Amino acid sequence: MENYWLAILIVIISFYYDVTSLKIPNWICLSSLICGYIYCIYQEGWAGVWLATIALIVGFVPMWLIYLFKGIGAGDVKLFASLATLIGIGSIVELMVISFLIGGIISVLFIGYRTLLKIKHRVRYYYSKYTVEANSNPTLIALGIKKVHHFPFMLAVTPAMIVVYLLR
């Protein structure tokens, strides 16, 4: 279970960087990857190298395909691949599924919120005869949401990682 605590710590650090700069630094992914390989070797001996490599591939390929369609950033792909070596194949698949479900919920809430903002501003425009843009408010900017159609994926991954830990 200590590997899950380390994974949660890595996800929390990644959350901070993703929300503040919309980037996950390579040193986080590399640290996670090295820790994952060390953990697998410690648990399984040299066979752990193969297990970690297979987990790396399982964590990388689906996320890379989503990255190709600009669904997530490259840092998310690298982070999922490195986390896979740390928490294993089954847990990384669970993390992906739960992250996408939570991300979908966040997207629906975000779209609803933005729609309400636009309606509010349209009513103001109708009555005041001047154009008002529906920009992100300070609360959304604090969460890293600066564009109408974009939010940091770590907003979904962090609670998903906690759910995966609780399922174990």
UniProtKB/TrEMBL annotation:
GO terms for molecular function: aspartic-type endopeptidase activity. InterPro entries: Prepilin_IV_endopep_pep (IPR000045), Prepilin_peptidase/N-MTase (IPR050882). PANTHER family: PREPILIN LEADER PEPTIDASE_N-METHYLTRANSFERASE-RELATED, TYPE 4 PREPILIN-LIKE PROTEINS LEADER PEPTIDE-PROCESSING ENZYME. One of its GO terms (biological process) is signal peptide processing. This is A24 family peptidase. It comes from Candidatus Pristimantibacillus lignocellulolyticus. Residues 6-107 form the Prepilin type IV endopeptidase peptidase domain. Keywords: Membrane, Transmembrane, Transmembrane helix. Belongs to the peptidase A24 family.
